[in-house]
Each structure stands twice: as C-alpha cells, then as structure tokens.
Design brief:
- This protein is mainly α.
- The protein is built from eight helices and three strands.
- Helices cover about 65% and strands about 10% of the residues.
Amino acid sequence: MKNFRYLKNAVLGSLLGLLVSFMVSCGSSKNSQNEMMMQMMQMMQQQQQNQQNNAVANQGQQDIAVALDPCIEYAMEEPAKRAYGTGVHFKESTATNLAQLNARANLARALQTCIETATVDYSGGTELFSADDKQGASVTDQTSNTDDREYGIAKELIKGAAIVKMSRYKTPNNQWKIIVCVEYQTSVAEMAAQVAKVYSEKLTSEQKARVKFDEQKFKEQMEKSLSGYKGATMQ
C-alpha cells in the first residue's frame, strides 16, 4: 500500500512538471489555456496534499470498541427472562411507555420461541393443535392456530414482567430516548411450570390424548428450552 502511494505521488509530481512546461511553452498569447491549466494544477496539488494529510492522520489508528448500553447488556445475560426496548419522544413519560411496550413485545416473542421449541421437542414434530377428522383444518390453519395460541400464552405470562433497569438519554433534537430492561421475576423452573400449566389448559382432552400429553414432562422440556435459549438478533 505504501509503495502504491509513493508511485501515485510520483506520477502526480511528473504530471505537474509537464503542466508547468506546457504552460511556459504556450506563451502569453494563450492566457485562457494557461488559466485552465493553472486551475488543474492547483486541483492536483490540493488532492496530493489531502492524500498526504489523510495518510498522516490515519497512521496508527484502530477501530474503537463501543460499549453496549447497560440495559441491553443486562438483558442479554438471561435472554429467556429479560428483554430490552427503546422509546423516543419529546415527553419522557411517553418515551418510557413506548420503551416498556417494545421490551414486553420482545420478551413475548422470546418466550413464544421457547414454547415452540419445547412443543416440537416434546411431540417429536407432531402438532399438538393439529386438526382432527371433525375439524378438517388446513395445514395453514393449524400453523396459524398454533402460533396464535403460543403467542397468547407468552403474552399472558409476561404480564408479570417488571422494569428492572433504565437508561435515559437526550437526543440532539431535544427528545427523550429511553431504554428499559424488563424481567420475568421468577426462576426458569417456575416459568416452565407456569407455561406448562397454561398450555395444558389450552389443550382439549382429545388433543391431550392424541399426543399423550403429560404436563410434568412438558414442563421439563420447557425448562430445557428456556435454559438453552440464547436470544434473538439485536432489536
């Protein structure tokens, strides 16, 4: 890279020399040409100077590590139980409410993912909410019903989540930017038990019989799913 810069500077220097020689040979009768050449020469000189300045300024520079906001960092420590959200508004109270809604929605999606994983692992791929001969639902209906029920269970459970950490910022245009972390304040084992209980209540007797549903075994599978959850992509 250095050799390339030296070569480039040498070429620029040679071009400058040729331009000066050309200007001298043109004589005073070609003032307009000389003025144009002078402008070109100044532009090339400025470009060469900028390159030299940039090379000096960038010498020894490295990427700068930027720390995560404390709320985000705290949420990532236990992603199955915690989630963060962001809200921006000119009123601090509104920004806080928006951040809390965002965090709760993120926590519900995380819990839904854990429930889906536990369901698949427990049933070996059998849909717990799949259609029977009487219902005759399509595959699309089955998937939609399952997703709705699992998200409904997740939303029901996160009502017990509370704000455990908050960061407050002022934006350049004088708005409030609030980041909060909400947490479901029980152990993973207790969370799994509550999910299994609600899940069992959502299943009909026929659905339970079809997959030989056992609440205790599903709780154990749910606990594994929660413990193994590593979190989603950064919101």
